[in-house]
């Protein structure tokens, strides 16, 4: 499930993903991030993963390709999670983002949000 958080504004998209991620969730995410890139020339992203249990492999692959193609249009990206594989995923996609990806543990979510919003 993809939830758009209230901190979303301007060129910043803040989302929380949990449970199972479907093709529809990834489609919505790509639509929201693409809209910001089109309107502002780039997009900042806060991506929080909580109790994430399943990601459809085809949807994840399609999303990964989107990131490779559009990675240079991202500004600051924070991934917040609770599992070792999530930190590895952040490191794996970091080279494809213009400013890389900062990974934070779930208990550091406020710090991650500040970093995306203000660069601190």
TrEMBL record:
Gene3D superfamilies: SpoIIaa-like domains
Listed SUPFAM superfamilies: SpoIIaa-like
Database matches in Pfam families: SpoIIAA-like
The organism's place on the tree of life at top rank: Bacteria
Protein name (Swiss-Prot/TrEMBL): STAS/SEC14 domain-containing protein
Source organism of this protein record: Pontibacter actiniarum
Lineage: Bacteria, Pseudomonadati, Bacteroidota, Cytophagia, Cytophagales
């Amino acid at each position: 499930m993809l939830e758009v958080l209230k901190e979303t504004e301007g060129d910043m998209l803040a989302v929380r993903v949990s449970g199972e991620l479907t093709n529809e969730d990834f489609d919505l995410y790509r639509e929201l991030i693409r809209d910001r890139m089109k309107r502002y020339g780039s997009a900042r992203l806060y991506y929080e993963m909580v109790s994430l249990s399943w990601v459809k492999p085809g949807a994840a692959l399609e999303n990964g390709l989107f990131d490779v193609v559009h990675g240079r249009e991202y500004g600051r990206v924070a991934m917040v999670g609770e599992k070792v594989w999530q930190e590895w995923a952040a490191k794996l996609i970091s080279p494809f983002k213009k400013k890389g990806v900062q990974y934070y543990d779930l208990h550091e979510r406020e710090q991650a949000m500040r970093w995306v919003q203000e660069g601190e």
